[in-house]
Every structure is written in structure tokens, then in C-alpha cells.
Design goal:
The protein is of the alpha+beta class. It is 35% helix and 25% strand. The protein is built from 8 helices and 18 strands. Strands 1, 3, 4, 5 and 6 form a 5-stranded antiparallel sheet that branches. Strands 17-16-15-12-18 form a 5-stranded antiparallel sheet. A two-stranded parallel ribbon has the order 2-11. The radius of gyration is 29 Å and the shape is flat.
Length: 367
């Protein structure tokens, strides 16, 4: 009898531990649920479409699932899943679709499981409509003549930028490299070199005016500046490092061993001075962060999906990755774009003015 009681108590203890663990696990991850936002809008062949879905029911502080649709692109479309955006505990995701064939895109239902997550994903059927007809004459007005690019002379724009002495050598090296490409009539390559250095070089902000003149010479219309990140490091990282360095210096200036050696009593006034220094450093840092947006406005996030920056040689954009397809747009020599995805020897490119299409890989210059 005593053995049975002990066994019963032991069983109840194990059950209590199991239930407690399950309760704690559910409290940590919640009960995530999936649902689509709105009905899918039909997509025209050759255009990009977006689908929105939300994940709700996650516990506070639990990391949201990512890559829910990874590896689940249908055979007749390219599918990309953007990062989630959180608002009041609701995580909203954006799926971008690029149809490759003129038939509906079917997303089959499935169960997404990743560690503690297990989410039932609902299926969806997206209607694909015929391509929108575009008049051929509307392409030709803004283009620099192909004959002129091949036989005419395009003078390299004059430049006279007031560059600090410490950056003069780097600036002149970049100009020499760009000018050399220009003289070889590699206009798109020259613009790509300018944009790459505008983004990555310490002399980048001093290249903006020249790059704009180059684009005007090539007949380009609406373009955007590069986001300056010298040595491949975002400018905001430098700002945080500067704030940390100044704060550390201010701390040792007020509370360092020199004051202790002098037996200097840290009065209330000293503390207020230190506080004033820290607040000043933070305000300077915030000012730099706000001004950082003005040092360039071509972050990838401004586009509707992630991709790589590039410029194009003069080319046509097709609705499908095939030369037998319908021409969707035409791009000028040196047109800045974001290339989103590729299929075989084709890239899907988007320009800042909204033009898009499939372009052959030999027309794409990434940087």
C-alpha cells in the first residue's frame, strides 16, 4: 500500500512538472495564428504584386517567425518574403510575387514549424491577368539616341569640387578612374563607379554633384542619391561609436584618477556638469542621426522589396524572362535600378521612377 501511495505521489509530481513546463512554454511563445489581410488583388502579367499576411497571438517578447514561405515559391512565379513589421503585438509580413506565366498562382496550405512554433498557413489563389498594352512610341521620347551613344561624342562634365586636403588624393583617384571609363565610351560603367564610391568612399559626399551632371549628360531623369556608408559601414554605426567614445571620455574627465589623486571632492556641481556633458553628447548624436538621412536617400528599404543596387546599359525590359516576350519598358544608358531576383540569365530590375521589367544579365552592372 505504501509503495502504491509513493508511486501515485511520484506520478502526480511528474504530471505537475509537465503541466508547469507546458504552461511556461505556452506563456513564452503564445499561440501564434496566421491570417491573410484582405483579398488578393489580380496581378497583370509582367507586373509585381503584393500579398499581406499577419501573425497574431505571440507572447510579449517572443521572437517572430521568419522565412515562413521560404522554399515554397510556385513554379510559375518568383516569391519573396519581407521582414515582419510589429504594431501592438501584431506582426505584418509582405509577400511579393512576380508571375512568370499567364496562369493563376496557387499557394497551397501547409503547416510551418520552427522550434516551438507551429502555425497553420492558409492557402490562396491569385488571379493573373493579361499584360497591359503599352504604346511603343511612349518609350522613345526620353532616351538618348543609340546611334549618338555609339558614334557621337559625350563630353565628360567639368568638375570643380572644394574637397578637404585629406580627401583630395582619394577624390582625384576616383575621378581619374571614372574619366578613363568615360573615354572608353563605357558610360554605364563610369556611372556605376561613381555611385559605388559615392556610397563607400570617404569622399563620397563630394561626388554627388558630379554624378548628377553625368546623369544629366546621359539624359537620365528621376534618380536618387546613394546612402553614404564609408568602408561598407552604415553612418549610424559611426555615430554610435562617437557617442560611446565621447561619453567614456567625459566620464574619465569628471571621475577619473586625476581627480582622485588630487582628493577632489565630487560635488553636486560636478555631477551636474557631467550630466550636462552626457546630455550634450546625446543631443549631438541625435542631430547626426537625423542629418544622416540627408546624406543620401537610396536605402534599399525605399524600394518595395530587397535587392542589389545596379546600373543598366541601354536595354529593354521584358514582361517575362524571354526575348520572345513583350517589351515592358526601355531603360536609358546608366539607369540606376534595384535588381531583385534572377531567373537563368535574366534579372528583374526596378527603377526609382516605377519602371520595371526583366533585363538580360549582360545589361546589368552591380556595384
Amino acid at each position: 500500500m505504501e509503495r502504491r501511495r509513493r508511486a501515485l505521489r511520484f506520478g502526480l509530481l511528474i504530471l505537475l512538472i509537465f503541466l508547469s513546463g507546458s504552461f511556461m512554454l505556452n506563456a513564452q511563445i503564445g499561440e501564434p495564428r496566421f491570417h491573410w489581410v484582405g483579398s488578393p488583388t489580380p496581378i497583370h502579367m509582367g507586373e509585381r504584386g503584393e500579398l499581406i499576411f499577419e501573425i497574431t497571438g505571440l507572447a510579449s517578447g517572443a521572437p517572430p517567425p521568419i522565412g515562413i514561405f521560404s522554399g515554397r515559391a510556385p513554379s510559375n512565379a518568383i516569391l519573396n518574403e519581407g521582414p515582419p513589421a510589429e504594431e501592438n503585438g501584431v506582426y505584418r509580413y509582405t509577400l511579393t510575387l512576380i508571375p512568370l506565366e499567364e496562369r493563376n498562382i496557387v499557394l497551397a496550405p501547409f503547416t510551418f514549424a520552427d522550434g516551438p512554433f507551429s502555425i497553420a498557413v492558409l492557402g490562396l489563389n491569385v488571379q493573373i491577368r493579361p499584360p497591359i498594352e503599352i504604346e511603343q512610341d511612349s518609350f522613345d521620347d526620353a532616351l538618348v539616341s543609340e546611334d549618338f551613344l555609339s558614334s557621337g561624342y559625350l563630353a565628360f562634365p567639368a568638375y570643380d569640387e572644394d574637397v578637404p586636403t585629406i580627401l583630395r588624393g582619394e577624390y582625384e583617384r576616383i575621378i581619374a578612374a571614372v574619366n578613363s571609363l568615360w573615354e572608353e565610351r563605357l558610360f554605364a560603367e563610369a556611372l556605376a563607379e561613381l555611385r559605388r564610391n559615392e556610397r563607400d568612399s570617404l569622399a563620397g559626399p563630394h561626388l554627388v554633384s558630379l554624378r548628377r551632371e553625368v546623369e544629366q549628360t546621359l539624359g537620365l531623369g528621376f534618380t536618387e542619391n546613394e546612402k553614404w556608408r564609408p568602408f561598407g559601414i552604415p553612418l549610424i554605426t559611426y555615430v554610435f561609436l562617437l557617442i560611446a567614445a565621447l561619453s567614456t571620455g567625459a566620464f574619465f574627465f569628471v571621475f577619473g584618477p586625476r581627480q582622485a589623486a588630487r582628493r577632489k571632492v565630487i560635488s553636486l556641481g560636478n555631477r551636474k556638469g557631467y550630466l550636462a556633458i552626457v546630455i550634450s553628447v546625446l543631443l549631438v548624436g541625435l542631430t547626426f542621426i537625423l542629418l544622416e538621412e540627408g546624406l543620401g536617400n537610396l536605402p534599399v528599404g525605399r524600394f518595395r522589396s530587397p535587392g542589389k543596387p545596379a546600373v543598366l546599359r541601354r536595354t529593354e525590359g521584358y514582361r517575362v524572362p524571354d526575348f520572345r516576350g513583350v517589351v515592358n519598358n526601355r531603360f536609358d544608358e546608366g539607369q540606376p535600378v534595384i535588381v531583385i531576383d534572377h531567373r537563368y540569365d535574366w534579372f528583374y530590375a526596378e527603377a526609382p521612377d516605377g519602371r520595371s521589367g526583366w533585363v538580360p544579365s549582360e545589361a546589368v552592372i552591380t556595384y
